[in-house]
Amino acid sequence: xxxxxxxxxxxxxRNDKKMTALRNYKTRGLFCSLxxxxxxxxxGTVKDILKLRRLFIEHxxxxxxxxxxxxxxxxxxxxxxGIPIIIGTYHVLPSxxxxxxxxVRRLIENVSVRCxxxxxxxxxxxxxxxxxxxxxxxxxxxxxxxGIDLSKFNNNGFNKDVLMRELGIGQGCQIIGVPxxxxxxxxxxxxxxxxxxxxxxxxxxxxLLVGGGDLR
Length: 216
Fold this sequence. Notes:
Blueprint: H1 6-11, H2 17-34, H3 37-58, E1 63-66, H4 73-81, E2 85-90, H5 103-113, E3 118-121, H6 124-134, E4 141-143, H7 160-166, E5 174-179, H8 188-201, E6 205-210
Parallel strand pairs: 1-2, 2-3, 3-4, 5-6
């Protein structure tokens, strides 16, 4: 990637290679702005699939596990490369990203889920949502819940009373916490929307959102 600042562009001679590259970049940018996003998505996905297929063949891959939402280009490439075992994991609901409502995206998703031997969903709701979205058979998706070994947090050396004072939480308060990165897919907004109703039922409740992210 070559980055040019305004002063460098202004000072460059007309026949400078950087100016030629910049003009070419602007021309490509103008052309790309006229092409619908759906077409750009389709072309980009096809390029990714062909590139991945070549890599899979070169490295003689025997098994593929795709960790991507919808398991799109990798599993299609794996099918075309003849990989015998193809598995993908559905970590989130398909509706969390508006971009995925594009008709080309839906087409890619529908093709990709049918390229997998088995899909893994992290919850029953996730499985049901992807079945409704793509029409994939339920027996082709297994539910395996995320697991957390809570015993690892039992003796970590912190003093609960000191921590509560630092957070301004008094004795006897009920605490509702969400440990998760601050992203729309984590659903923090639903807890926030419910705060007033919860406080009507539990007046001494406190809420903790633990994590960082774009929505901080």
